[in-house]
Amino acid sequence: MELDSNKGGAKEHARNYDLKAEVDSLTQPLIKSGETPGIIVGVLTPDGKMQFFGYGTSGAKTRQVPDSDTLFPVGSLSKGYLGAIAASLVKEGLLSWDDTLEKLLPSSIPLSSDAKKITLLQLATHTSGMPRQPVTVQTLGYLTQYVFTGDNFYRHFDTDFVLGYLSNFSAPNNKDFQYSNIGYGLLGYVIEQRTGKKLDALLKERIALPLGLRNTGYDLESLKDVKNRAYGHAGDQPKFVHRGDPVPDWHFTDIMKGSAALYSSAGDILIFAAAHMESRQSKLTPALVDTLQVRYQREKEAPAIAWVVDKIEGQDITYQVGVVAGYTSYLGLDIEHRTAVVVLQNSFNWNNKVGHKLLNRLAAAHFFPERPDQRAGL
Predict the structure, then answer these.
(1) Deepest of 66, 138, 283, 362, by most Cβ within 10 A of its Cβ?
(2) Is residue 120 part of a domain?
(3) pLDDT tens sequence across 235-281
Protein backbone atom coordinates (compact mmCIF):
# COMPACT_ATOMS: atom_id res chain seq x y z
CA MET A 1 0.00 0.00 0.00
CA GLU A 2 1.09 3.61 -0.55
CA LEU A 3 2.39 5.30 2.59
CA ASP A 4 1.57 8.95 3.24
CA SER A 5 0.61 10.00 -0.28
CA ASN A 6 0.38 13.62 0.94
CA LYS A 7 3.91 14.61 -0.06
CA GLY A 8 3.34 18.22 0.84
CA GLY A 9 2.28 17.20 4.33
CA ALA A 10 5.41 15.11 4.71
CA LYS A 11 7.59 18.09 3.79
CA GLU A 12 5.70 20.23 6.27
CA HIS A 13 6.42 17.71 9.04
CA ALA A 14 10.11 17.84 8.17
CA ARG A 15 10.19 21.64 7.93
CA ASN A 16 8.68 21.97 11.40
CA TYR A 17 10.78 19.11 12.81
CA ASP A 18 7.65 17.32 14.03
CA LEU A 19 9.12 13.85 14.27
CA LYS A 20 6.03 12.26 15.79
CA ALA A 21 3.83 13.53 12.96
CA GLU A 22 6.39 12.20 10.51
CA VAL A 23 6.38 8.72 12.04
CA ASP A 24 2.59 8.76 12.44
CA SER A 25 2.14 9.42 8.74
CA LEU A 26 4.19 6.34 7.86
CA THR A 27 2.98 3.86 10.46
CA GLN A 28 -0.67 4.56 11.22
CA PRO A 29 -1.81 3.43 7.73
CA LEU A 30 -0.21 0.03 8.43
CA ILE A 31 -2.20 -0.40 11.65
CA LYS A 32 -5.48 0.87 10.19
CA SER A 33 -5.22 -1.37 7.13
CA GLY A 34 -4.40 -4.45 9.23
CA GLU A 35 -1.02 -4.91 7.56
CA THR A 36 0.49 -5.41 11.01
CA PRO A 37 -1.06 -5.67 14.51
CA GLY A 38 1.72 -3.65 16.13
CA ILE A 39 4.84 -1.66 15.34
CA ILE A 40 7.52 0.18 17.28
CA VAL A 41 9.78 2.77 15.64
CA GLY A 42 12.95 4.13 17.21
CA VAL A 43 14.82 7.15 15.86
CA LEU A 44 18.32 8.37 16.66
CA THR A 45 18.82 12.03 15.73
CA PRO A 46 22.18 13.78 15.15
CA ASP A 47 22.24 15.22 18.69
CA GLY A 48 22.33 11.66 20.08
CA LYS A 49 18.71 11.76 21.27
CA MET A 50 16.60 8.61 20.96
CA GLN A 51 12.82 8.72 20.55
CA PHE A 52 10.36 5.83 20.32
CA PHE A 53 6.85 5.61 18.87
CA GLY A 54 4.61 2.58 19.44
CA TYR A 55 1.36 1.68 17.64
CA GLY A 56 -1.22 -1.09 17.77
CA THR A 57 -0.79 -4.07 20.03
CA SER A 58 2.00 -6.46 21.00
CA GLY A 59 -0.22 -9.41 20.12
CA ALA A 60 -3.22 -11.60 20.73
CA LYS A 61 -2.21 -12.39 24.31
CA THR A 62 -1.87 -8.74 25.31
CA ARG A 63 -3.39 -5.40 24.33
CA GLN A 64 -0.24 -3.54 25.33
CA VAL A 65 1.16 -1.04 22.84
CA PRO A 66 4.75 -1.99 21.87
CA ASP A 67 7.36 0.19 23.54
CA SER A 68 11.15 0.55 23.54
CA ASP A 69 11.54 -2.48 25.85
CA THR A 70 9.14 -4.86 24.07
CA LEU A 71 11.01 -7.99 23.03
CA PHE A 72 10.92 -9.19 19.42
CA PRO A 73 12.66 -12.03 17.61
CA VAL A 74 14.74 -9.99 15.16
CA GLY A 75 15.65 -12.70 12.63
CA SER A 76 18.57 -11.73 10.45
CA LEU A 77 19.38 -8.59 12.44
CA SER A 78 21.18 -11.27 14.47
CA LYS A 79 23.83 -11.26 11.75
CA GLY A 80 24.84 -7.70 12.61
CA TYR A 81 25.77 -8.74 16.14
CA LEU A 82 27.64 -11.82 14.93
CA GLY A 83 29.46 -9.67 12.37
CA ALA A 84 30.46 -7.28 15.17
CA ILE A 85 31.77 -10.19 17.27
CA ALA A 86 33.81 -11.42 14.29
CA ALA A 87 35.19 -7.93 13.64
CA SER A 88 36.24 -7.54 17.28
CA LEU A 89 38.13 -10.85 17.12
CA VAL A 90 39.86 -9.72 13.91
CA LYS A 91 40.84 -6.40 15.49
CA GLU A 92 42.44 -8.28 18.38
CA GLY A 93 44.34 -10.54 16.00
CA LEU A 94 42.55 -13.69 17.13
CA LEU A 95 41.19 -14.16 13.61
CA SER A 96 41.96 -12.79 10.16
CA TRP A 97 39.42 -11.97 7.45
CA ASP A 98 41.68 -13.96 5.10
CA ASP A 99 41.53 -17.15 7.19
CA THR A 100 40.08 -20.04 5.15
CA LEU A 101 37.83 -22.86 6.28
CA GLU A 102 40.72 -25.23 5.66
CA LYS A 103 42.62 -23.36 8.40
CA LEU A 104 39.67 -22.60 10.67
CA LEU A 105 38.01 -26.02 10.89
CA PRO A 106 39.43 -29.23 12.34
CA SER A 107 41.09 -31.49 9.78
CA SER A 108 38.61 -34.22 10.73
CA ILE A 109 35.81 -32.31 8.97
CA PRO A 110 35.77 -33.26 5.26
CA LEU A 111 35.73 -30.23 2.96
CA SER A 112 35.38 -30.03 -0.80
CA SER A 113 38.14 -28.19 -2.66
CA ASP A 114 35.81 -25.19 -3.03
CA ALA A 115 34.79 -25.23 0.65
CA LYS A 116 38.45 -25.21 1.72
CA LYS A 117 38.96 -21.85 -0.03
CA ILE A 118 36.04 -20.01 1.62
CA THR A 119 37.35 -17.16 3.77
CA LEU A 120 36.01 -15.62 6.95
CA LEU A 121 35.42 -12.38 5.03
CA GLN A 122 33.39 -14.18 2.37
CA LEU A 123 31.14 -15.71 5.03
CA ALA A 124 30.66 -12.32 6.70
CA THR A 125 29.86 -10.51 3.42
CA HIS A 126 27.68 -13.20 1.77
CA THR A 127 30.19 -13.69 -1.03
CA SER A 128 31.23 -17.29 -0.37
CA GLY A 129 28.90 -18.66 -3.04
CA MET A 130 26.91 -20.58 -0.44
CA PRO A 131 23.12 -20.45 -1.00
CA ARG A 132 20.51 -18.91 1.27
CA GLN A 133 19.80 -22.48 2.36
CA PRO A 134 20.50 -25.85 0.70
CA VAL A 135 17.46 -27.17 -1.15
CA THR A 136 16.86 -30.79 -0.22
CA VAL A 137 13.78 -33.01 -0.25
CA GLN A 138 13.42 -32.42 3.47
CA THR A 139 13.75 -28.64 3.05
CA LEU A 140 11.05 -28.65 0.36
CA GLY A 141 8.79 -30.68 2.63
CA TYR A 142 9.23 -28.23 5.50
CA LEU A 143 8.67 -25.28 3.15
CA THR A 144 5.36 -26.84 2.10
CA GLN A 145 4.35 -27.20 5.75
CA TYR A 146 5.40 -23.62 6.42
CA VAL A 147 3.04 -21.99 3.91
CA PHE A 148 0.11 -23.65 5.70
CA THR A 149 1.27 -23.43 9.32
CA GLY A 150 4.14 -20.93 9.67
CA ASP A 151 6.39 -23.61 11.20
CA ASN A 152 10.17 -23.15 10.98
CA PHE A 153 11.62 -24.72 7.82
CA TYR A 154 15.20 -24.36 9.10
CA ARG A 155 14.68 -26.72 12.01
CA HIS A 156 16.66 -29.59 10.45
CA PHE A 157 19.76 -27.48 9.75
CA ASP A 158 21.80 -28.84 12.65
CA THR A 159 25.58 -29.06 12.96
CA ASP A 160 25.84 -32.43 11.20
CA PHE A 161 23.72 -31.16 8.29
CA VAL A 162 25.68 -27.93 7.79
CA LEU A 163 29.13 -29.50 8.11
CA GLY A 164 28.07 -32.41 5.91
CA TYR A 165 26.97 -29.94 3.24
CA LEU A 166 30.55 -28.63 3.04
CA SER A 167 31.93 -31.98 1.91
CA ASN A 168 30.14 -31.68 -1.44
CA PHE A 169 29.96 -27.90 -1.77
CA SER A 170 30.59 -26.64 -5.30
CA ALA A 171 30.98 -22.89 -5.70
CA PRO A 172 29.03 -21.17 -8.51
CA ASN A 173 31.02 -19.48 -11.25
CA ASN A 174 29.82 -16.09 -10.03
CA LYS A 175 30.44 -15.72 -6.29
CA ASP A 176 28.97 -12.23 -6.19
CA PHE A 177 26.73 -11.16 -3.31
CA GLN A 178 24.40 -14.07 -2.53
CA TYR A 179 22.62 -13.82 0.80
CA SER A 180 23.31 -16.94 2.85
CA ASN A 181 21.69 -17.92 6.14
CA ILE A 182 23.69 -21.13 6.24
CA GLY A 183 26.87 -19.13 5.63
CA TYR A 184 26.27 -17.08 8.77
CA GLY A 185 25.44 -20.23 10.70
CA LEU A 186 28.86 -21.52 9.68
CA LEU A 187 30.48 -18.20 10.65
CA GLY A 188 29.10 -18.56 14.18
CA TYR A 189 30.30 -22.17 14.38
CA VAL A 190 33.83 -21.23 13.27
CA ILE A 191 34.00 -18.46 15.87
CA GLU A 192 32.91 -20.83 18.63
CA GLN A 193 35.52 -23.37 17.56
CA ARG A 194 38.35 -20.83 17.46
CA THR A 195 37.51 -19.10 20.76
CA GLY A 196 36.31 -22.10 22.74
CA LYS A 197 33.28 -20.05 23.82
CA LYS A 198 29.59 -20.25 22.95
CA LEU A 199 27.97 -17.36 21.09
CA ASP A 200 25.86 -16.54 24.15
CA ALA A 201 29.02 -15.79 26.15
CA LEU A 202 30.69 -13.92 23.28
CA LEU A 203 27.60 -11.76 22.71
CA LYS A 204 27.45 -10.91 26.40
CA GLU A 205 31.11 -10.06 26.91
CA ARG A 206 31.80 -8.34 23.57
CA ILE A 207 28.52 -6.56 22.77
CA ALA A 208 25.85 -6.58 25.48
CA LEU A 209 27.92 -5.67 28.55
CA PRO A 210 30.12 -3.01 26.87
CA LEU A 211 27.04 -1.29 25.39
CA GLY A 212 24.74 -1.82 28.37
CA LEU A 213 22.17 -3.90 26.45
CA ARG A 214 19.62 -5.33 28.90
CA ASN A 215 17.27 -7.04 26.48
CA THR A 216 19.44 -8.69 23.85
CA GLY A 217 20.20 -12.41 23.81
CA TYR A 218 19.52 -15.77 22.24
CA ASP A 219 17.52 -17.12 25.21
CA LEU A 220 14.20 -15.30 25.57
CA GLU A 221 13.57 -16.50 29.11
CA SER A 222 16.86 -15.06 30.37
CA LEU A 223 16.09 -11.49 29.28
CA LYS A 224 15.08 -8.80 31.75
CA ASP A 225 11.74 -7.84 30.22
CA VAL A 226 10.66 -11.34 29.17
CA LYS A 227 7.02 -10.63 30.09
CA ASN A 228 6.95 -7.61 27.78
CA ARG A 229 7.17 -9.45 24.47
CA ALA A 230 5.51 -9.27 21.08
CA TYR A 231 3.59 -12.20 19.60
CA GLY A 232 3.95 -13.01 15.93
CA HIS A 233 1.26 -12.93 13.22
CA ALA A 234 0.95 -13.83 9.56
CA GLY A 235 1.48 -11.03 7.07
CA ASP A 236 2.66 -11.29 3.47
CA GLN A 237 3.69 -14.80 4.51
CA PRO A 238 2.84 -17.63 5.21
CA LYS A 239 0.74 -17.63 2.04
CA PHE A 240 -2.06 -19.88 3.30
CA VAL A 241 -2.41 -18.41 6.79
CA HIS A 242 -4.90 -15.55 7.06
CA ARG A 243 -3.21 -12.18 7.58
CA GLY A 244 -3.34 -11.27 11.25
CA ASP A 245 -3.65 -14.83 12.55
CA PRO A 246 -1.10 -15.88 15.20
CA VAL A 247 1.80 -18.05 14.02
CA PRO A 248 4.30 -20.07 16.10
CA ASP A 249 7.67 -18.79 17.25
CA TRP A 250 10.69 -20.20 15.45
CA HIS A 251 13.38 -22.08 17.38
CA PHE A 252 16.78 -22.52 15.74
CA THR A 253 19.41 -25.21 16.03
CA ASP A 254 22.64 -24.33 17.81
CA ILE A 255 24.63 -23.81 14.60
CA MET A 256 22.00 -21.45 13.14
CA LYS A 257 21.78 -19.33 16.30
CA GLY A 258 24.09 -16.55 15.11
CA SER A 259 22.26 -16.31 11.81
CA ALA A 260 18.74 -15.59 13.03
CA ALA A 261 17.97 -16.53 16.68
CA LEU A 262 18.46 -13.22 18.50
CA TYR A 263 15.81 -11.49 20.62
CA SER A 264 16.06 -7.77 21.27
CA SER A 265 14.11 -4.55 21.78
CA ALA A 266 13.95 -1.28 19.87
CA GLY A 267 15.77 0.46 22.73
CA ASP A 268 18.69 -1.97 22.71
CA ILE A 269 18.91 -2.05 18.91
CA LEU A 270 19.12 1.74 18.71
CA ILE A 271 21.92 1.72 21.31
CA PHE A 272 23.72 -0.82 19.11
CA ALA A 273 23.15 1.42 16.07
CA ALA A 274 24.40 4.54 17.88
CA ALA A 275 27.61 2.74 18.86
CA HIS A 276 28.54 2.50 15.16
CA MET A 277 28.49 6.30 14.90
CA GLU A 278 29.72 7.19 18.38
CA SER A 279 32.17 10.08 18.40
CA ARG A 280 33.39 9.07 21.87
CA GLN A 281 35.80 6.21 21.26
CA SER A 282 35.43 2.94 23.13
CA LYS A 283 37.19 -0.43 22.89
CA LEU A 284 34.40 -1.68 20.61
CA THR A 285 34.31 1.34 18.27
CA PRO A 286 37.02 0.26 15.77
CA ALA A 287 35.36 -3.13 15.24
CA LEU A 288 31.91 -1.62 14.72
CA VAL A 289 33.22 0.98 12.28
CA ASP A 290 35.02 -1.81 10.42
CA THR A 291 31.74 -3.65 9.84
CA LEU A 292 30.36 -0.63 7.94
CA GLN A 293 33.05 -0.63 5.26
CA VAL A 294 31.96 -1.81 1.80
CA ARG A 295 34.16 -4.77 0.86
CA TYR A 296 33.06 -5.39 -2.73
CA GLN A 297 31.91 -2.55 -4.98
CA ARG A 298 28.54 -3.04 -6.61
CA GLU A 299 26.09 -0.65 -8.23
CA LYS A 300 23.37 -1.71 -5.77
CA GLU A 301 23.35 -3.57 -2.47
CA ALA A 302 27.08 -3.43 -1.86
CA PRO A 303 28.02 -5.84 0.96
CA ALA A 304 29.74 -4.80 4.18
CA ILE A 305 30.13 -7.03 7.26
CA ALA A 306 26.49 -8.13 7.78
CA TRP A 307 25.31 -4.74 6.47
CA VAL A 308 24.09 -3.80 2.99
CA VAL A 309 24.86 -0.35 1.58
CA ASP A 310 22.50 0.95 -1.07
CA LYS A 311 21.46 4.28 -2.56
CA ILE A 312 17.78 4.87 -1.79
CA GLU A 313 16.29 7.92 -3.51
CA GLY A 314 19.79 9.32 -3.94
CA GLN A 315 20.81 8.74 -0.33
CA ASP A 316 23.32 6.17 0.95
CA ILE A 317 21.64 3.94 3.52
CA THR A 318 23.41 1.18 5.43
CA TYR A 319 20.89 -1.34 6.64
CA GLN A 320 19.92 -4.82 7.78
CA VAL A 321 16.55 -6.58 7.54
CA GLY A 322 15.24 -9.55 9.49
CA VAL A 323 12.18 -11.65 8.65
CA VAL A 324 10.95 -14.76 10.44
CA ALA A 325 7.41 -16.11 10.54
CA GLY A 326 5.41 -13.58 12.53
CA TYR A 327 7.96 -10.76 12.68
CA THR A 328 9.76 -8.15 10.58
CA SER A 329 12.74 -6.08 11.71
CA TYR A 330 14.70 -3.23 10.12
CA LEU A 331 17.74 -1.26 11.19
CA GLY A 332 19.02 1.53 8.97
CA LEU A 333 21.87 4.02 9.36
CA ASP A 334 22.49 7.29 7.56
CA ILE A 335 26.18 7.67 8.33
CA GLU A 336 26.48 11.10 6.68
CA HIS A 337 23.79 12.68 8.86
CA ARG A 338 24.39 10.51 11.94
CA THR A 339 20.82 9.25 12.11
CA ALA A 340 19.42 5.77 12.58
CA VAL A 341 15.99 4.14 12.45
CA VAL A 342 14.80 0.83 13.89
CA VAL A 343 11.40 -0.61 12.94
CA LEU A 344 9.99 -3.76 14.56
CA GLN A 345 6.65 -5.33 13.53
CA ASN A 346 4.87 -8.37 14.91
CA SER A 347 3.92 -9.61 11.44
CA PHE A 348 5.86 -10.91 8.44
CA ASN A 349 6.07 -8.21 5.76
CA TRP A 350 8.69 -7.98 3.00
CA ASN A 351 8.76 -4.24 2.48
CA ASN A 352 11.28 -1.89 4.16
CA LYS A 353 9.16 1.16 3.29
CA VAL A 354 8.87 2.68 6.77
CA GLY A 355 12.58 2.56 7.60
CA HIS A 356 13.89 3.71 4.24
CA LYS A 357 11.28 6.47 3.86
CA LEU A 358 11.89 7.79 7.36
CA LEU A 359 15.64 8.00 6.85
CA ASN A 360 15.02 9.83 3.56
CA ARG A 361 12.69 12.28 5.34
CA LEU A 362 15.20 12.87 8.15
CA ALA A 363 17.90 13.67 5.59
CA ALA A 364 15.57 16.08 3.81
CA ALA A 365 14.82 17.88 7.08
CA HIS A 366 18.52 18.28 7.71
CA PHE A 367 18.89 20.51 4.66
CA PHE A 368 15.91 22.82 5.11
CA PRO A 369 17.28 26.37 5.21
CA GLU A 370 14.70 27.37 7.85
CA ARG A 371 16.33 24.99 10.31
CA PRO A 372 17.14 27.15 13.38
CA ASP A 373 19.98 25.13 14.91
CA GLN A 374 22.22 22.86 12.85
CA ARG A 375 23.54 21.22 15.98
CA ALA A 376 20.23 20.20 17.46
CA GLY A 377 19.22 17.48 15.05
CA LEU A 378 15.56 17.50 14.15
Answers:
(1) 66
(2) yes
(3) 999 989 999 999 999 999 999 999 999 999 999 999 999 999 875 56
